[in-house]
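In line with agreed milestones, the collection of sequences with tokenised folds has grown. A representative record is reproduced below.
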Amino acid sequence: MPRFHLLLRVAAGLGLASCMALPALADSPVAVTFQANNPWTQEVGSVDRRDASHDYSVDVAAGKTLQVNLVTRDPNVFFKVRDETHGKQLVDTYQTGATTWSSPNPTATSYTIHVYVDPYAMERGEEAKYALQIGHYGPEDMQTATTAVTFQQGNPWVQEVGAMDAQATSHDYTVAIAAGNALQINLITRTPGLHFKVANQVDGTQLVDTASTGTATWSTSAATATTYTIHVYVDPAAVPPGKNAQYALQIGQYPAQAAGAAATPAPAGTQAPATGVPASAGTAGG
């Protein structure tokens, strides 16, 4: 074969090999959106040896904090965050070992969140699933939810059931107590870092914090009609990303002289009791 034609064939072969070695173009980033009145959203995906990364773009308004939580059972999945507005790489959890990250935003900023896995750490055919929790919140989004407690006629007990996570870490309950009545509160939970405080709304006095007392029940008598705020809260460190802390809050009011009233059962069908709480209540999960 003439040398000129041989060189053409070799060059063509090298060109084909180069084309075959080019990586596939990355997918366009997923544009993250939030529902009205909800500062949090979640993106679910998976990575493997061939599809080793996914990008998410999120715009955060001035005055908001961006928070990213990565929930996965695979220790080889990580994320990076890049500030596209200012052209800065901010974090790589491969280096930090963290699964959560946050940053305040004095000005409006656009970010790219790059979720990835080292393909060489994956077995052939192995798939790593993940959930990416993305929050953008300001002071107005962190206000504590409040529930006004009411009692049914003839029943001195009411039970409120709820759950908290690393983003929603508290809930307030307000209860009006008539003069001469006693207030009793029982908190049932399996999460050690979940507690309650009680404050008198009339004079602002804080009456108890069970994180300090180490108890799950508390009572007082009201000489005059007053309203109390029961602040149920959890230490965020006690609730890993993707998990929640469930609880049941039992609230009773009865004439202070009726010493046995504290043992009156809560309404039928509620969750069921730890020691010293109404007999028909149940243990809250968590």
